[in-house]
Amino acid sequence: MPEKSSSSTPAAPQARVRRRRTVWAAGVLVAATAAAVALVATAGSESDPDRSQPETSAEPVPGDSAPAGPDLARRDTDDPLAVGSVDAPVVMVEYSDFQCPFCGRFARETKQELLSTYVKKGSLRIEWRNFPIFGEESEKAAHAAWAAGRQGAFWEFHDRLYAEPRERNTGEFTKDKLVAHAKAVGVEDLTRFRRDMESAQARQAVDRDREEGYALGVTSTPAFLVNGTPLLGAQPTETFHEEIKSALGESKNEGEAK
């Protein structure tokens, strides 16, 4: 959906807050990447071949302390690329590529358990960010997923693309095959799907997600933020349980302190 914009004066402080949060998150993710290279390699993540080192250009605002953590959750009630209550105490932001095998493993295994354990109970919201880094077919799949979301079928499309391991850039995600996947999951207006998939809006939406990730220092997939805490790679399911439970505890403590 189009973003609302405003030219009023209060927008300036909000922009500075968002900038400080991005600076904080970039530093945390860069540090986490450097400290966990060996762990990520064994846990499962794939790096962007064109961005082997995290890139950051933002500078801290002088005289202003960083907040406790980055709040990059959009909590948009109309976001078709999100699942779970907008009021959930924990939001997990996921940066993934449809050609990443570790992203597929997370989708088929860990995510299903998180949906039943937390999302359905209202304690977790998952917000997807398209982060295509493995070439043309990754781009096409991301655009197609966004287009499926326009007709309320993003998660069905997501599950189908990840349903089985696929060889990267071997014709699995050509335009015709993506249309066939859309038809299989019940996307009703395939003419609109094709139009949306190739639209400037699709490119802009995907670019927005990807640049958000790059600004944080993300260079491999999958990558996550659990209430601002970075989690890199397809970690064991128990690791996600631990992070979510920790975030839930912190959220409860903050609520009691108010």
Give the helix/strand layout.
Elements: H1 11-35, H2 37-43, E1 46-47, E2 82-83, E3 90-96, H3 101-119, E4 124-130, H4 136-150, H5 154-161, H6 175-184, H7 190-197, H8 200-216, E5 220-221, E6 223-226, E7 229-232, H9 237-257
Helix pairs in contact: 4-5, 4-6, 4-7, 4-8
Please provide a written account of the structure:
The strands form two sheets. Strands 2-4-3-6-7 form a five-stranded mixed sheet, with helices on both faces. A two-stranded antiparallel ribbon has the order 1-5. Helices cover 50% and strands 11% of the residues. The chain has a single domain, classed as Glutaredoxin (3-Layer(aba) Sandwich). Mean pLDDT is 82; it is low at 1-26, 30-42 and 52-69. The chain contains nine helices and seven strands. β6 (223-226) and β7 form a beta hairpin. It has helices spanning 11-35, 37-43, 101-119, 136-150, 154-161, 175-184, 190-197, 200-216, 237-257; strands spanning 46-47, 82-83, 90-96, 124-130, 220-221, 223-226, 229-232. α4 (136-150) runs parallel beside α6 (175-184), α4 packs across α7 and α4 packs across α8. With 258 residues, the protein is α+β, with helices and mostly antiparallel strands. The longest helix is centred in the N-terminal third of the chain and has 25 residues, at 11-35.
